[in-house]
Design a protein that fits this description.
Elements: E1 6-10, H1 18-31, E2 35-38, H2 43-46, H3 56-67, E3 71-75, H4 83-86, H5 115-132, E4 138-142, H6 157-171, H7 174-181, H8 208-234, E5 241-242, E6 244-245, H9 253-256, E7 264-266, H10 274-284, E8 293-297, H11 317-327, E9 330-335, H12 363-381, E10 383-385, E11 390-393, H13 396-404, H14 412-426, E12 430-433, E13 444-447, H15 455-466, E14 470-473, H16 494-499, E15 503-508, E16 515-518, E17 521-526, E18 528-532, E19 539-544, E20 552-559, E21 562-567, E22 570-571, H17 573-590, E23 603-610, E24 615-621, E25 627-631, E26 635-637, E27 643-644, E28 647-651, E29 656-660
Parallel strand pairs: 1-2, 1-9, 2-3, 3-4, 4-5, 6-7, 7-8, 8-9, 11-12, 11-13, 13-14, 14-21
Antiparallel strand pairs: 10-23, 15-18, 16-17, 16-19, 17-22, 19-20, 20-21, 23-24, 24-29, 25-28, 26-27, 26-29
Helix pairs in contact: 5-8, 8-13, 11-12, 14-17
Amino acid sequence: MAKKLYHGAAYYPELWNEKVIEEDILLMKEAGINVARMGEFAWHTMEQEEGNIDIRFFVDIVHKLHENGIETVMCTPTPTPPIWFTHNHPERMYVSQNHTVMGHGSRQHACTNHPYFRKKANEITEHIAKAVGSLPGVIGWQIDNEFKCHVSECMCEQCRTLWHQWLEERYETIEQLNEAWGTKIWSQYYYSFDQVPQPGPAPFLHNSSLSTMYRQFSMEKIAEFSDSQAEIIRQYSDAPITHNSNVPFSVDNERLFENLDFASFDTYASQENKASYLMNCDLWRNFKKGRDFWIMETSTSHAASLESYASPHANGYLRAEAIASYALGGEAFCYWLWRQQRAGCEQPHGSVISAWGKPTVGFQSVLDVEEMRKKVEPFMVATKPQQADIAITYSDQAKAFFQTEPHQQMDFRSLVTNFYNHFVSLGVHRDLIPEKESLQDYKLLFTPFLPYISDEYRKRAVDFVKSGGTWIVGPLSGGRTKEHTIHTNAALGELEEIAGIEALYTYPMDGTGSVGHAFGEKAPLVLWSTVFEYDEQTAVGTIAGGNSDGKAFITESKVGKGKIVHIGSLPVEEDGDSLLMKLIDHYATEAGVSVRTDVTNGTIVAPRIDDEGKQSWVIVNMDGEGGSVTIPEKAMDRLTEEMISAGRLEIGPYEYRIISF
C-alpha cells in the first residue's frame, strides 16, 4: 500500500533563471505539486566540458524544493549526450535499419551499447548518485527517459559484435543456430557466428528468426544498460529506482523492470482512447506485484510537438484519469511538464504553467486533481487494489513477433487494447499480467495474441487448468516456435495433444465470407486463423460459409479439473464484439468470477480491499456522459459518510464516488 499519494510534474530548472525558479516553486505549492522529476535531459548542464562534472546546481534545487515541501525523483541524463560526445564521432551514434547514422540533436542519438557511451554514462551517473543520493529530498530515481521510444534496434558495428556474442551464448554452435532457424532456406546457411548479418537493408524480407532474435537481443541489451545504471545508484542511495516506459517502445518491460524497484509509465492516451489508459494501469500494477506504480508523465490538457497536436481534455477528464489511476494501484500522478518550454521541438505541448509564467488551460484541472487527492488519500493509503479473478497475459516478446510478422500490418498494442476493452465494457475486474507472473488465485486465464507460447508458460497454464482453472487461448496464439518458425508436429505444437484437439488448417479468413457461430451470436471471421476439426465433444464455435464451412473455430476441452478453450479466429465488427463479450461472460459465469459489476459503459469500478478484507468500490465516470451501477447491499459513502441503500446508483459526468460495504 502507498504511504501517501504523489501529485507531481517534470521540471527543468536548468532552462530558467533564479527568479523564474523561485516563482515556479511558489506556483508548485499553490497547485499542490508535492514531487518534481528532473535531470533526465541535463547532461550538458552537468558536464559542459568532457571530464568536468558539476552537480551543484541540482543539489541546490533539491534543497530548495525540499525546504518547500516538494520531494524529488532524480534522473540520469543519458538520453541526451552533449555535443562533445557526438561531434566527429559517428561510430558512437545510433544506426537505423536502413543504415542511416544519427547526427547530434533530438535525443537517443547515441548507441547505448557503445563502450564509450557506457563509460561516460556510468561516470555521470556515479557523480549524480554521490552528490544527491543521501539528500533528504530525494525519494526516488528514474533511469534515462523512455528507452527506445524514438529508435528501435541499432545496426552499428558495436551492436554487430555484441549480436554475434549474444548468438554464440544462446546457441553455442553455429550448427545449432542453422538447425533452429532453418537457414537452408534461400541459401542462408552460416559457417560461423560472425557471418550472421544484422537485419538491415535487403531486397525482400529477412528470415523471421533473424529479425525476431535481433529484436530480442536489442531488448536484452537495453535492459542490461538499465541494470548497470541501477547498480551504480544503489551504491550511494537507498531510494527506489524506476524507468518511465510504455507499451509501444521497443523494450521488453517485464525484463526491464526485473531489476528495478517500482514500475512507472508515461501515457498520452486521448480521452477517446480511455481503454488504452486503463489497460496501462492494469498492466503496470502487475510488473512489480505488490508495489504501487507511478504515472510519470501525462498531459494536463493536450500532447503536442512541432509536427502535430492532440485535442485537449474536456474539463473534468483529468481528475477522472487521476482518481482512476490512484484507485487501480497508482501511487503518483505526474505531468509532463511543469513550465511550457520556450524552445525545442515540444514547445506546443500542454503544461501546468505557460512559458510566460501564467496558468494554462489545464491549470484549473490540476487544482481539481489536488482537491481530489487530499480527499481520497486517507482511503487510498488504508486500502489496496483487489486481485481480479481474471488474468490476461501481456507479452512484449509477442510484440516482437508481430513486428516481424504483422500479417496485414496488424499492430500488437491495438489488438490487445481492443480485446481488453471487452472486459472493461462488461464491468469485469481484470489483471493484465506479464508472462512469468504467478497464476495463483485466478479463475480464468486469457492468452490472446501470443504467437509463441513458451514451454514454461504452457506448463504453468496447464497446471492451472488441472487445478480447476479455465485457460482461453487465442486468437493468434501458439502457432510459432521460440525461434519464430512453424511447428512441424502440429499447427499449435504440444497444445493440441494436451487439449485433445486437431487443427486442420491455418490461413487468412479475410474476404472469404466465413461467419462464426457461437454463444447464440454470429459474426464475420478475419485475420490469420486456425481451423479445427468439428467434434461434437469439443466444438463450441462453428464456421458457416467460406473455405472451412462446417468446421470449428472455438473448441473446449476438459483437462483435469478445468478446461482449455481455443479461439482460432477473431470475430469482428459490432457482431464480433457481441460474440466475444458473450464468450467472456459465459466462461466468467461458469468459473464463478465474482469481482465484477453491472456498471454502464463509460464508467468504471475499481475494487479495493483493506487489511481486514473489507471491500470498497471506487466508481469513476470517464466518458463525460454519466453512468450507473447496482449497489448489491447497503453501503457507506466514504467521502460523505452517508449511507447508501442497495439499488441503482447514478454517477454524474466525470463524477467519482467511493463506496464501502
